[in-house]
TrEMBL record:
GO terms for biological process: hydrogen sulfide biosynthetic process; sulfate assimilation. Pfam families: APS_kinase (PF01583), GTP-eEF1A_C (PF22594), GTP_EFTU (PF00009), GTP_EFTU_D2 (PF03144). Heterodimer composed of CysD, the smaller subunit, and CysN. NCBIfam families: apsK, CysN, PRK03846.1, PRK05124.1, PRK05506.1. It is an enzyme of class 2 (transferase). Pathway: Sulfur metabolism; hydrogen sulfide biosynthesis; sulfite from sulfate: step 1/3; Sulfur metabolism; hydrogen sulfide biosynthesis; sulfite from sulfate: step 2/3. ATP binds at G468, L469, S470, G471, S472, G473, K474, S475. It catalyses: adenosine 5'-phosphosulfate + ATP = 3'-phosphoadenylyl sulfate + ADP + H(+); sulfate + ATP + H(+) = adenosine 5'-phosphosulfate + diphosphate. GTP binds at residues 31-38, 110-114, 165-168. Residues 22-224 form the Tr-type G domain. Its EC number is 2.7.7.4, 2.7.1.25. This is Multifunctional fusion protein.
Length: 635
């Protein structure tokens, strides 16, 4: 077995210790198919002697079978491990590889370059200290190079190496290198890259990888490995930034000890430092820095610690502890960049869980300002973001959080969005800045409240939310229920889908994005009417679980009754009271629920009405009965 160190056989303890104390550099390689990424990584593993002999003989054999390099070793085969990739000749998923030198440990993320794998690239790059952009010297800067560069700038990678590869195939020409460098520099200025290193190389022949190549005496810089050995690690840089510790959990083993545990995102902290807890703004002083190995006099970015404070301060998971002299910002509305990572598009108005640091809040995209064409950097208008799309959006949260702009701190400014129903990660984003309007809008206190208004009407306010296919009977039944309530002297209002679309929602169509916005507005109106003390009936197809649960969450517990008007599609289509199914079947009506747009069946509706069993009047009676049962109506 070939390996970098004899210590492995002579003194394993010593070997492990030396490894433990080495800095770790994470980097990502990007480029298009055939630029030589896999060859470069294979070469780095080989040069750092991290290949085992049995692996070496396996690639030698494979090189003969699949390789593209004649009789020489094809390092790409080592790296393109998946059989599927080999056969198609492309790299599909993010592959992480580890190697080490005497100075450092390395983790390299090898990501596929195609546009449909943008999300993989973002995932692979999210923790990288450096990026190597591979450029084929024969082809120069391609659209892919620009796209990858834009992504790296979006993710905020500070150290960029443009590896101008395959120099052996252009006779190691200085003129070719200079031309590509100048072209890239002009582009780099557009996306705000300041510090770019250009290295001419041949990963295949090993030129300028570990040592400077004699074949390019005109190159005055460093070879790739020595460059990587010297790149500043993010951990080192972060120690110079303002102190931030997102609180992971409150450690309270007994009444005498109360500590706040977390991993330091940036900066330095010492006992005696004055701190501010955010978003609450409360202040105190650090009493102790507790760790498994005893108390510390100082702790820095990357360390996991428990802080105790001089005062009793109310702190919970998700809060951020800052030093008092340089606190984070707090806000509940932001402009953010967003990379969409799911097959189901981002819909403005839909509520997602947002994880930022150790905090989880509910977030809505209130507006997509524009989508970025990642190939040309043009801004495009967009109503939704599809898989792999990148956009700039306004975000609105259900409560204020402590944060930093992503450009200043990736831990307190970077976030992911999670689907509330499936728990899938659907997007990744970077906070740009707080919207000023969020700082200027406060809830106004009013003395006459919901309870007072409802009491004046001698009733309990609530929302009766009818959902079901078109023609299922929502409007018919809701209308009968309202008549019966009215006859009982109740104060009601019926919000009907078609009626609302004539006024408030006149600007909306029937795409998924517009349906979400339709229900968001109706939910807000229903909430205002409940506030006014009314019994609100709403009759909307409301096809998605997500928006129905949003409408539910807008009012208090017990104030929302979901009524699923359960009529099979065949029956609703047979009734077809407005002739809409016939139109849809003729293809004259797009996005019609049940035909070419989904209806998600409610799983926990309070009331389910089977209209094949109950006629409309009986259904209305049944609902009145349920309202008496749950105490909304008196008997
Ligand atoms: P939606 O509001 O759900 O689109 P509508 O109430 O406008 O549906 O239309 C439902 C149609 O079905 C009406 O023409 C109604 O008379 C008819 N219908 C037949 N049986 C029932 C029933 N059991 N409940 C409600 N409506 C029924």
């Amino acid at each position: 077995m070939a390996h970098v160190s004899d210590l492995i056989s002579t003194d394993i303890e010593q070997y492990l210790k030396a490894h433990e104390n080495k800095g770790l550099l994470r980097f990502i390689t990007c480029g298009s198919v055939d630029d030589g990424k896999s060859t470069l990584i294979g070469r780095l593993l080989y040069e750092s002697k991290m290949l085992f002999e049995d692996q070496l003989s396996a690639i030698e054999a494979d090189s003969k079978k699949y390789g593209t390099q004649g009789d020489e070793i094809d390092f790409a085969l080592l790296v393109d491990g998946l059989a599927a990739e080999r056969e198609q000749g492309i790299t599909i998923d993010v592959a992480y590889r580890f190697f080490s030198t005497d100075q450092r440990k390395y983790i390299v993320a090898d990501t596929p370059g195609h546009e449909q794998y943008t999300r993989n690239m973002v995932t692979g790059a999210s923790t990288a200290d450096a990026a190597i952009l591979m450029v084929d010297a024969r082809k120069g800067i391609l659209i892919q190079t620009r796209r990858h560069s834009y992504l790296m700038s979006l993710i905020g990678i500070r150290n960029i190496v443009v590896a101008i590869n395959k120099m052996d195939l252009v006779d190691y020409s200085e003129a070719v290198f200079n031309r590509i460098r100048e072209e890239y520099r002009a582009f780099a200025r557009q996306i705000g890259f300041e510090d770019v290193t250009f290295i001419p190389m041949s990963a295949f022949k090993g030129d300028n990888i570990t040592t400077l190549s004699e074949r390019m005496p005109w190159y005055q810089g460093t070879a790739l490995m020595p460059h990587l050995e010297a790149v500043e690690l993010d951990d080192e840089r972060l120690q110079r930034s303002a102190f931030r510790m997102p609180v992971q959990w409150v450690n309270r083993p007994n009444l005498d000890f109360r500590g706040f545990a977390g991993s330091i995102a940036s900066g330095v902290i010492r006992p005696g430092d004055a701190i501010r807890v955010q978003p609450s703004g409360k202040t105190s002083t650090v009493a102790r820095i507790v760790t498994h190995d005893g108390d510390l006099e100082q702790a820095v970015a990357g360390q996991s610690i428990t802080l105790t404070l001089a005062d009793e301060v109310d702190i919970s998971r998700g809060d951020v502890i800052s030093r008092i002299d340089a606190p984070a910002e707090t806000a509940d509305q932001f402009e953010a960049s967003l990379v969409w990572m799911h097959e189901e598009a981002l819909l403005p108005g839909r509520r997602y869980l947002m994880k930022i640091g150790t905090n989880t809040v509910t977030a809505q995209v209130s507006e997509i300002k524009y989508q970025v064409n990642v190939n040309t950097l043009e801004h495009l208008a967009a109503k939704q973001l599809e898989l792999n799309a990148i956009g700039v959006c306004n975000l609105s949260l259900d409560r204020a959080i402590a944060f930093d702009a992503y450009a200043d701190n990736q831990d307190t400014g970077g976030f992911i969005l999670i689907d509330r129903l499936t728990n899938n990660t659907v997007g990744a984003g970077m906070l740009r800045f707080a919207l000023r309007r969020s700082q200027n809008i406060h809830m106004q206190h009013v003395d006459v409240d919901k309870a007072a208004r409802a009491q004046a009407k001698s009733q309990k306010a609530c929302v009766l939310w009818f959902t079901g296919l078109s023609g299922s009977g929502k409007s018919t039944i809701a209308n009968l229920v309202e008549k019966k309530l009215h006859a009982r002297g109740q104060h009601t209002y019926l919000l009907d889908g078609d009626n609302v679309r004539h006024g408030l929602n006149r600007d909306l169509g029937f795409t998924d994005a517009d349906r979400v916005e339709n229900i968001r507005r109706v939910g807000e109106v229903a909430k205002l009417m409940v506030d006014a003390g009314l019994i609100v009936l709403s009759a909307f197809i409301s096809p998605f679980c997500s928006e129905r649960s949003m409408a539910r969450d807008l009012v208090a517990d017990g104030e929302f009754l979901e009524i699923f008007v359960d009529t099979p599609l065949s029956v609703a289509e047979e009734r077809d009271p407005k002739g809409l199914y016939k139109k849809a079947r003729r293809g004259e009506l797009k996005n019609f629920t049940g035909i070419d747009s989904a209806y998600e069946v409610p799983e926990a509706a309070e009331i389910r009405i089977d209209t094949t069993v109950l006629d409309a009047d009986a259904a209305a009676e049944r609902i009145i009965g349920e309202l008496i049962e749950c105490g909304i109506l008196q008997n």
